[in-house]
Amino acid sequence: MASDTTAARSTTPAGRRRPLSSRTGLTVLAVVVSLISLFPVLWMLTSSFKTRETVTDGKLIPTDFTFDNFVYVFTEVPFARYLWNSFFTSAVITVVALFFHSMAAYALARLRFPGREKVFGAIFATLLVTAPVVLIPLFLVVRELGMLDSYAGLIIPAIFNAFGIFLLRQFYLGLPKELEEAAVIDGCGHWRVYWNIVLPMSRPILSALAIFFFLANWNAFVWPLVATSDQDLTVVQLGIASFQTQYTSNWNYILAAATIAALPMLILFFAFQRQIVESVKTSGLK
């Protein structure tokens, strides 16, 4: 009996240690993966403060710390103009896309009309078409409309995004219908239901989509390269690419420009990371 009691006591703590050890292992794995992911960003940040002679020395901490790279980027090239172009186009695309996507998603989720499922299927099918396939037809359409070398040519083709409509529709399908039905009984039409009830309840998912859309358009490279040739319309990613072509060996200037372009996205992410997590939980994505 004593031996059985001793064995039971010895196995119980061991059984309790297993969740702790597995949790510790997952924590260590998460830390390692995070460090691996953050290391290139940290290397870019520290190397942007190195001189041309030490930028490729293989050291993480700069030996000759300097701000001249950032001064050079803003004085020798119109990098501030590149940043403004990227910010303006990304902000306009994000706001307009969220407005139209939310309306389309609400109609596909709540309104009853003939061919609704076929319309949604056609929109969803565009996710299967890669961007290079539609690049030339899109360029021809934009050229025929006379929108090349203009902000309209950068903004309008990038507004539609089937992923945003799909994600918002799935989110709206999970909203309780009782609130909308009560508003309809009180005399509200579809527009007031959408504007006063659906949109306020969609803040988490809209915040996450806003970050995704802004980030995607901030990093846009192929379409601005095709649609514009005017230097006044150059976006930041094209500016970095042209800067690298012109100064192939001056990696200190290139890394400084890349750091400046990455900082707004990092600030945006850390400022709205709570909304991203909430959108993942409320939309059912795991």
UniProtKB/TrEMBL annotation:
<comment type="similarity">
    <text>Belongs to the binding-protein-dependent transport system permease family.</text>
</comment>
<feature type="transmembrane region" description="Helical">
    <location>
        <begin position="148"/>
        <end position="168"/>
    </location>
</feature>
<dbReference type="Pfam" id="PF00528">
    <property type="entry name" value="BPD_transp_1"/>
</dbReference>
<feature type="transmembrane region" description="Helical">
    <location>
        <begin position="82"/>
        <end position="107"/>
    </location>
</feature>
<feature type="domain" description="ABC transmembrane type-1">
    <location>
        <begin position="83"/>
        <end position="272"/>
    </location>
</feature>
<dbReference type="InterPro" id="IPR000515">
    <property type="entry name" value="MetI-like"/>
</dbReference>
<protein>
    <submittedName>
        <fullName>Carbohydrate ABC transporter permease</fullName>
    </submittedName>
</protein>
<feature type="transmembrane region" description="Helical">
    <location>
        <begin position="251"/>
        <end position="272"/>
    </location>
</feature>
<feature type="transmembrane region" description="Helical">
    <location>
        <begin position="26"/>
        <end position="45"/>
    </location>
</feature>
<keyword id="KW-0472">Membrane</keyword>
<dbReference type="InterPro" id="IPR035906">
    <property type="entry name" value="MetI-like_sf"/>
</dbReference>
<keyword id="KW-0813">Transport</keyword>
<keyword id="KW-1003">Cell membrane</keyword>
<keyword id="KW-1133">Transmembrane helix</keyword>
<feature type="transmembrane region" description="Helical">
    <location>
        <begin position="119"/>
        <end position="142"/>
    </location>
</feature>
<keyword id="KW-0812">Transmembrane</keyword>
<feature type="transmembrane region" description="Helical">
    <location>
        <begin position="205"/>
        <end position="226"/>
    </location>
</feature>
